[in-house]
Design a protein that fits this description.
Blueprint: E1 2-9, E2 18-23, E3 26-32, E4 38-43, E5 48-50, E6 53-58, H1 77-87, H2 93-109, E7 112-120, H3 127-139, E8 144-150, H4 161-171, E9 175-176, H5 186-203, E10 206-211, H6 221-231, E11 238-242, H7 245-248, H8 251-263, E12 267-270, H9 272-278, H10 294-299, E13 304-306, H11 323-333, H12 339-347, H13 351-356, E14 372-375, H14 380-386, E15 390-395, E16 398-402, E17 408-409, E18 418-419
Parallel strand pairs: 1-4, 6-7, 7-8, 8-9, 9-10, 10-11, 11-12, 12-13
Antiparallel strand pairs: 1-2, 2-3, 5-14, 14-15, 15-16, 17-18
Bound molecules: fe (ii) ion.
The site of fe (ii) ion has 5 residues, from loops.
Length: about 425
């Protein structure tokens, strides 16, 4: 007898009327019309069953601190970094853990079951690192938390920056981070990329750097990152986060850069909500969008995913752990409005994000973890359009969260009693 059988599910690849059989926390079968006894059977009624959402770029040590000790007045990246610097001396491990756990509650309710979080290693106390390692252990039964050693103030710019980052890795942080565009000079930025990639190669770690989060078209650290990934044999193990300067770069240079990124196996994570609000701040009009060249990178064969980056912190006073909101913004900013492009936006917060994070056993196929989310939506486009209600969230066969179908009651003459924002039956895509 199975532990769980989902019937009549639609999958993100378009297959309909699928049954998903679960035993021992793993998917054992996926096919139409399975009739097998199970301890629990759930009729998906044609709704979309997706693998869990994954956030490949977040800051869990800063989240839910909005307003502490004050609000970012200008709304810029640099005031955000300065504000985080004001908050750091006031942080306690208890408060950091409490805020991070509260965010993970939101995440689970939204079907977000894997988060890669950068953790600030600039302060020799490594307080955020110890707090986030404690959170990682606490949430392990329900959420995969991956930590990146992130020298927020610059690994070379901060006295003791390299040592602090090394100590964070010794404590068990998974990934090597960096912020080359925040170092004092272009040369120091490039040197930091080299040094950090060498460190990752020595220790067998993945790399994920904040790379060129700037409107400066001459901020070209992504080139060094891709070159170093190739030189050190780190293909497929390096990610460039943000890469917003690519938005402003010369087209001829980009035509040479994208093949280099593809050849080096470097993936790119754009953060649409944050890029659209933090970039272009020195512009009058026209005002640049600032997000990296997502469709062009995808066309060039680069793995591209979307991250949330910030929720209610010194940089961003919005958000609710909803990766469909991230995909929604990414779709708009990149003008990815064709049906295949909309599907790519959905993949950017599911399969592609899982690939960036090197997650094992991810997907809806036999042998994968029985981790999936039932959405109140018919397909990925509908899921993004509606930022669909997460009806049920399972991880390894266990139900972690559920919500009622969202229907608005109407009181209108000669009209239905309610609407769930579905297309009328005659309408087709
Ligand atoms: Fe970030």
């Amino acid at each position: 007898m199975l532990d769980l059988l989902i019937t009549h599910a639609t999958l993100p690849d378009g297959r309909t009327d699928q049954s998903v059989a679960v035993q021992g926390g793993r998917i054992v079968d996926v096919q139409p019309g399975l009739q097998v006894p199970a301890a629990e059977t759930v009729d998906a009624q044609g709704q979309l069953l997706t693998p869990p959402f994954c956030d490949p770029h977040f800051h869990l040590d800063a989240t839910l601190s909005y307003g502490l000790p004050r609000v970012n007045q200008s709304g810029t990246l640099l005031e955000g970094i300065a504000l985080w610097g004001e908050l750091k001396p006031l942080l306690t491990e208890e408060a950091l853990v409490e805020r991070a756990l509260a965010y993970c509650d939101w995440a689970v309710a939204k079907g977000l079951l894997a988060i890669r979080s950068h953790v600030d290693t600039s302060d020799p106390s490594l307080l955020p690192v110890r707090a986030m390692l404690a959170v990682k252990e606490r949430v392990a039964p329900y959420l995969d938390l991956q930590l990146v050693a992130f020298p927020q103030d610059g690994v070379l710019r901060t006295p003791g920056g390299v040592e602090n980052l090394q100590r964070a890795l010794d404590l068990g942080v998974d990934v090597v981070g960096g912020i080359p565009h925040f170092e004092r000079t272009m040369a120091d930025g490039a040197a930091s990329v080299r040094l950090l990639c060498e460190l990752a190669a020595e220790r067998g770690k993945l790399v994920d750097m904040h790379c060129d989060e700037s409107d400066d078209p001459l901020s070209r650290h992504i080139e060094t990152l891709a070159f170093e990934a190739q030189r050190l044999g780190l293909q497929g193990r390096v990610n460039g986060s943000h890469c917003t300067s690519m938005h402003s770069m010369d087209n001829y240079y980009v035509s040479k850069l994208i093949p280099l990124i593809a050849e080096s196996g470097v993936s790119v994570v754009a953060n649409p909500l944050i890029n659209i609000t933090l970039q272009g701040r020195h512009d009058t009009y026209p005002k640049r969008r600032g997000m990296t060249r997502v469709p062009e990178l995808l066309a060039g064969g680069v793995t591209v995913a979307f991250g949330h980056d910030c929720v209610m912190d010194p940089w961003y006073g919005m958000g609710s752990a909803d990766m469909l909101e991230v995909a929604h913004m990414g779709l708009h900013v990149a003008q990815m409005t064709s049906q295949p492009a909309i599907r790519q936006c959905f993949e950017a917060v599911t399969t592609q994000a899982a690939k960036v994070m090197h997650l094992d056993h991810y997907g809806i196929a036999p042998g994968c973890d029985a981790s999936f989310v039932l959405l109140q939506a018919r397909d990925p486009a509908d899921a993004i359009r509606l930022r669909a209600t997460r009806l049920k969230v399972w991880r390894r066969g266990q139900l972690l969260a559920s919500a009622a179908q969202q229907v608005s009651t109407l009181n209108l003459p000669d009209r239905p009693a309610g609407t769930a924002f579905e297309l009328p039956r005659h309408a087709t895509r």
